[in-house]
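Q: Okay, next protein. This is 3-dehydroquinate synthase from Flavobacterium microcysteis. I've checked the sequence twice, so it should be correct. Can you predict the 3D structure?
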Amino acid sequence: MKPIEANGYSIFFNENAYEALNSHLAENKYSSIFILADSDTNEYCLPIFLPNLETDLNIEIVEFEPGETNKNIETCVELWNVLTELGADRKSLVINVGGGVVTDMGGFVASTFKRGINFINVPTTLLAMVDASVGGKNGIDLGSLKNQIGVINVPQMVLIDTNYLETLPQNQMRSGLAEMLKHGLIFDKKYWSLFLDLNNLNTGDLDTLIYQSVEIKNNIVTQDPKENGLRKSLNFGHTLGHAIESYFLENENKTSLLHGEAIAAGMILESYISLRKNLISDMEFEEIKNGIDNIFERIVFEEKDIQPILELLIHDKKNEYGTIQFALLDGIGGISTGQKADNELIIDAFLEYNS
């Protein structure tokens, strides 16, 4: 697979990834390498990664606890302290090996340590490959509020090796499919239709689908790197999806959701809002709802859950002048940004979702 050229860096795939990495290490005079990984990726993914690394440089592995609950400033402070204690300097390289939490937070840690040192991302989950790999967004959560603190800063390169997917449980694989579905819904109806019957897909097909998903996101981000216009289309399903994810994360009576599980619900809810605004047809809504339901189980929303979720919407990063901004579908394969929806319509969407 050919590398995909992003804004200021390249995304390399499978066997070409390690060749590109080792060439980069040979051509750049780094003082040391720090591999950031959570305990899961340290156990399951570094045995794949490390044998492919060719360098005489000193390598330190820095491990932290996995999960969204650890994607916070406290973990960053611990990582900055460890980098300092181990002698990291301006010429050190950070390699983030892991899922979206690792690449988001690792990129933020590298971007802010000594005012910024180079980093490389090696996403190991399907979600991270098709989402966190593109766009240079690095950041952490503020309490339960998703991605409130961060910077846009690109890595030196991104390496996508689909062999890491063999280490994933099924729910993590499903979680990544949500972003791929989204890419089809907002940008490419033909790509969306490929997911309507997953039974006929094989491993080779998955590699191609991942490549196409990265291409779609990169196409959007390249045109609008700072999210002033077109890039807002990538927020479809995320306005409500992030609020749902935050609510389930902070509520001790709820089981935390994976990102893709929350986004899948968000896409159904926001498709219903698109329907009510006459942006999609009844037939398109049913197709979207059935397509997502074939992959994801429905989340149970109790009546008492809806108001707290609505209150979390005000913290969404896309909001402007205190107004909640939605990216809604304009037909399957199209998008309309800057859309507004009142609370009554959002509540109707939850009622329809529960029906």
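A: Here is a summary of the prediction. The domain at 170-354 is CATH 1.20.1090.10 (Dehydroquinate synthase-like, alpha domain). The longest strand covers residues 145-152.
Q: Noted. On to the next one.
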